[in-house]
Amino acid sequence: MKKICISVGVLLSLFRAGYGQSVAQPTYEKRKLKLEEINLVSSYYQQDGNNSAVTGGIGTEKLTDFAQSFDLVLKTTDQRNRQHTIAFDFNIDHYTSASSDNIDPLTVSSASRSDTHIYPSIAWNVHNDNNRTTKGLALSYSTEYDYKSYGINLNFAKASADNNREVSLKAGAFFDTWKAILPPELRPDGYGSGAHGDRDPIDYKPRNSYNLSLALSQVVNKRMQLLFTVEPSFQQGLLSTPFHRIYFQDGGETVEKLPGSRLKLPISFRLHYFMGDRVVVRTFYRYYIDDWGMQAHTANLEVPVKVTSFISVSPFYRFSHQTAVRYFAPYEQHKQTEKYYTSDYDISGFNSQFIGIGFRTAPPGGLFGIGHWQSVELRLGHYTRTTGMVANSVTLLAKIK
């Protein structure tokens, strides 16, 4: 697949091409492309458990991840008074995974013991106040030790005359290529390990994803806002993970095998209620169903409270319940007569809870007296799952305008 390259110059040339196609209006004032805001996010995530899919549904799930995100937003206005927004997003994660290291326990270190995940993106949106529409295009790229992904997203939104209602439509596609890394005991002769420096050949498999999103937002009154979203998606290609082991009841061993397609349908509802100047209640509910037999319910509650005019505290809680896909069975519970099989507890049946708190400060004169440093937020979270997995996360967000 050819590499996709985009530059600011290309986008600006599109702007200039637009200028040449219409007559400048007298009310137009030339505006340069200016920096609107910068968002910086740093996070640390740590988990542990004893249901690793790499070793057939048993064994360590220990993982740590340190992530950095840099988001740059630029804006300009063309001669038709349309507002153009360009957003550059660069993300990089570095993780260490004891469970992934068990792909090849006979070596000192397997290909996925630790790795760096890089995923930049660029988005361009055009907002027209005259007809209350927003149109946009986004391109993304992602790479890790065992896959590469290219993505494209289109979006369109239309607001009502009073701007209290908006309908939006998004469509996206992701084209992935996976390295089919196999456990060493299940590799054919001459098949590579996928490790750095191993020149033996290895299979590459495609996986494509297609997503739609239809959303309706409504301002009910000064205190209440609603959002309803339907997001169907379809995946096709390699949907199983070749280095996930399966152990059968009779002692046999193979790798995970799942259908080559999956249709998903999440439906969600969000309600924000402003209880005066100091308290906001944010609620969220999502129902999920797919053609693998999974159903899930997720409910989330967050209540930001202003302690002072520029300091707020936001406790939050999320509960989720999901059923297992029809192809799941624990360690040594699958039969060799089955067509598909997985022991991945991420798609098993379980309940989970995520509880935490956020602290945000936005001083009127900027943080530490630096006017452009608008706000900083610290979020702490603790996650538990009825399968025994436990995780903790720390996230620091800073906004510069």
Explain the overall architecture.
With 401 residues, the chain is mostly beta strands. The chain has helices at residues 8-19, 98-101; strands spanning 34-48, 63-77, 83-97, 114-118, 121-128, 133-144, 147-159, 165-179, 204-219, 224-230, 233-237, 245-247, 253-255, 261-275, 279-290, 295-302, 305-306, 311-322, 350-361, 373-385, 390-400. The two termini are 38 Å apart. It is 4% helix and 54% strand. Residues 1-26 have low confidence and may be disordered. The strands form two sheets. It has a 19-stranded antiparallel beta sheet that branches. The protein has a two-stranded antiparallel ribbon with strand order 12-13. The chain is globular, with a radius of gyration of 24 Å. The chain has one domain: Beta Barrel (Porin), CATH 2.40.160.
- Helix content class: under 10%
Structural class: mainly beta
CATH architecture, by name, is Beta Barrel
Let me know the largest β-sheet.
Answer: 19 strands, antiparallel
The CATH superfamily is known as monomeric porin ompg
Number of domains: 1
Order of helices and strands: HEEEHEEEEEEEEEEEEEEEEEE
Compute the number of helices. Answer: 2
- β-sheet strand percentage: over 45%
End-to-end span in angstroms? Answer: 38 Å
Give the secondary structure arrangement, pairings included:
Blueprint: H1 8-19, E1 34-48, E2 63-77, E3 83-97, H2 98-101, E4 114-118, E5 121-128, E6 133-144, E7 147-159, E8 165-179, E9 204-219, E10 224-230, E11 233-237, E12 245-247, E13 253-255, E14 261-275, E15 279-290, E16 295-302, E17 305-306, E18 311-322, E19 350-361, E20 373-385, E21 390-400
Antiparallel strand pairs: 1-2, 1-21, 2-3, 3-4, 3-5, 5-6, 6-7, 7-8, 8-9, 9-10, 9-11, 10-14, 11-14, 12-13, 14-15, 15-16, 16-18, 17-18, 18-19, 19-20, 20-21
